Amino acid sequence: MKQRIITAIIAAALFIPFVIYGKVPFTILVLAMAIVGFYEILKMKGISIFSVPGFLGLVTLILLVIPKDWSEKVVELIGYSSNLMVVYGLMMLLLIYVVLVKNKITFDEVGFILLGAFYVGLGFHYLIETRNVGLEYVVYCLLVVWTTDSGAYFVGRKLGKNKLWPEISPKKTIEGFIGGIVIAVIFAVGMQLIYPFANGYISLVLVTIFASIIGQMGDLVESAIKRHFDVKDSGNILPGHGGILDRFDSLLFVVPLLHFLHLFSN
What we know:
Elements: H1 2-21, H2 23-45, H3 52-65, H4 68-78, H5 83-100, H6 107-133, H7 135-159, E1 163-165, E2 169-173, H8 174-194, H9 201-228, H10 244-260
Antiparallel strand pairs: 1-2
Family: Belongs to the CDS family.
EC number: 2.7.7.41
Catalytic activity: a 1,2-diacyl-sn-glycero-3-phosphate + CTP + H(+) = a CDP-1,2-diacyl-sn-glycerol + diphosphate
């Protein structure tokens, strides 16, 4: 526990200034975290990021992560009509590579690489886009995710009796799941009281409940992936916390869905 707290404090001290400043430094930091996260998910499958398919997947990831104005410049530079066409071209190269190496890498592995690139890439892309919309919105997202995670942990530890999904995450409880939502709502309302940013308290509470549930589902998805590959953590870059995906699994679900619902549109 002591190591977890120390790591969390140091990580927050390094991460928060980038969040506040935003712009290019924040984009580069998020891109770096996305690359590490992609490396972690490929490693679980036993695919090297330095292999040909791993490299093609990495390029796909980068194109998915970078903000829209950056990707437009890349597309214009190489003469394609859209970013999607570039990603499609990379997918074709991956499939052709399977044929060239006579199935030494399988179509299943290509599918895993592409799904991993989209899973990690789009999640971190919308983290960047959320910051570009406004500091208050990315603070809100981080607040909901972090308070949900902490609330679920402490409430589950104190009051948890009924297992939520023991086959995937044995320590999570229904009481913790509900407690995480309640704590997230309390902190979101507190943020609204200090710095009004939402249209109203009813909509804020409903959105927070939704975001908290989705965030916890994202955490369960990551747990399911790790259980499938029989690993405890996605990585070890954060002592006591595991890897990048272990810490950002909830956020990778929350920020894209809030954008898809146009909750952060200008």
